[in-house]
Amino acid sequence: MNYLQMNEYSKFEKEEQALADYFGKGNFIPFYKKHLKQGKIKLTLNDFIAGDIDTMFTAMKLLGINYEYDDYPKCLNKYLYRKIWESSIKSLKTELFTEYTINPTFIKPKNKLKKFTGCIIQSIDDLNKLNNSGDNTKIICSEQVNFISEYRIPIINGEIKDFCFYSGDSNIKIDKYIVQKMVKEFENSPKAYCIDVGVLSTGETALIEVNDAFSIGIYSMPKKVYAELLITRWNELKGHKNDMIMV
Description:
With 247 residues, the chain is α+β, with helices and mostly antiparallel strands. It is 26% helix and 29% strand. It contains 6 helices and 12 strands. The strands form 3 sheets. Strands 8, 9, 10, 11 and 12 form a 5-stranded antiparallel beta sheet that branches. Strands 4-7-5-6 form a 4-stranded antiparallel beta sheet, with helices on one face. Strands 2-1-3 form a 3-stranded parallel beta sheet, sandwiched between helices. Helix 1 packs across helix 6. It starts with a strand and ends in an 8-residue tail after the last helix.
């Protein structure tokens, strides 16, 4: 069965609506997140499910799927054009309370269950952006760079399916040859994923991050591409039950 999450207003978000249109009337069951958490949905490995990050992590836990990921695969580091490192809220606070200000640093939660939205931190005053996240929260830090054009690129079985512009100047195009190199050089990649790529103010086509495809924004993807992206990845994850999945 195909399960599609509804929001609190009993409606589909645009991602689930695209899947509903793809499957067709009568070929899916709408559900609320709370029902999955309460065990009212008897999810099996024969089922497909789509919803927000929290819902999908709940589904994986119920099915015994252990999961880890990496937004920045080492094999693609040369395409970052900036320094990336891991830290914690505690370490960040210690640095800020010692130095009062730091070089502008983009930070985001390491865990996909996002406790706060990625943001630029430079001073103590910026700590209010962290949504009261605990000191032990792991974060990914990045040197600040200026992306002037950004695209999401869905890949299924090693094939680029689209180039979806989502931010900046749409007249500034990424170098598709560089994107093809990223896809080719992504070792041990999942069967379905997206890479976010942008053009820097310095002119390079750079990797923003890799995004897994079990729960991802549709942006301007065709519904068929979006559906096949999620279905392909979910089938792969189910096939690796009780194995560690790395992205």
